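Supplementary Note 2. Why include the ligand at all?

Several targets in our set were suspected to adopt different conformations when bound, so apo predictions alone were not considered sufficient. For every target with a known small-molecule partner we therefore ran a joint prediction. The input for NAX is given below.
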Amino acid sequence: VKEMVRVLVTGAAGQIGYALVPMIARGVMLGPDQAVILHMLDIPPAAEALNGVKMELVDAAFPLLKGVVATTDVVEACTGVNIAVMVGGFPRKEGMERKDVMSKNVSIYKAQASALEKHAAPNCKVLVVANPANTNALILKEFAPSIPAKNITCLTRLDHNRALGQIAERLNVHVSYVKNVIIWGNHSSTQYPDVNHATVMTKDGEKQVRELVADDQWLNGEFITTVQQRGAAIIKARKLSSALSAASSACDHIRDWVLGSSKGTWVSMGVYSDGSYGVPAGLIYSFPVTCEKGEWSIVQGLKIDEFSRAKMDATANELAEEKSLAHSCLE
Ligand code: NAX
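The joint prediction is reproduced in token form.
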């Protein structure tokens, strides 16, 4: 029998939370043989709604769900958790300056970093979803120095999956035949979705996406902007931001990290840069990674052309700027 796993979801009364907790309780994140206890955190104004989510989890009678903690107390929420999915944050409201939003989130992630550091289970794995995701994760890392940097990541898997989806639609093939796209950099509109190493499985074997699409203008233009702007397109259509796809990709991120990525396939994760590919160390930057035995490693040795280099640098520059803005909020 596998040991019970405690999974924290912050912002659990929000719309991603509402899509995510049933997926976790059904085994989508950790597998169909993994019992879980859900810890759900939100803030006092959302306490009643949070309790409603807890009631629905009870009503759904999930076989794998062995307990639910629903709380507005960050210490209670973090105690003993093995996995922390950080979805709670302060959204940008109309008329707000970037610095004001940053400042709110810096203080949230600073406080939650300390709570995780003191109360989470040893070797707790952390995934930050809330925006600005990379920089929130960086603040969390800086204020939880005893949590290994390798354990703190941010979500760019949604962008990765969006890129796979766009290629699959364009080639009219099932998305499961497309692999090894890369999201480089920030989870923002400067991210660089790169197809230079992506392949499609065909009846004649694996083929390069560039070869099959045979339209560099589309791949270097509209494809990139569609992936970068997909979040905005969803908001325009739904009047709400992505939720089910965000929740699903958060499950993909943790599942591959904990249980391993498929052989010959890499995925994108926002991780603490070690300087690979000339990306400045000390940023949380999205790289292609493979995962084995609960550890990710950056895929090395990929050829980077001039077009890619410029885009990878631009998104790194934005992250460096966000980092200094975040640090100026701490002064
Ligand atoms: P919602 O506003 O529906 O939910 C956020 C929840 O967080 C609310 O219930 C709120 O009360 C709670 N919250 C606020 N401060 C908190 C705190 N200090 N501690 C605990 N909970 C707190 O937003 P939702 O649509 O669920 O999106 C959540 C976050 O994900 C946003 O920051 C959003 O920008 C971000 N996203 C990130 C994505 C990614 O790929 N990395 C994609 C989807 C999404 O846009």
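The two ends are 49 Å apart (CA to CA). The chain has a mean pLDDT of 97. Comparable summaries for the other entries are listed in the accompanying table.
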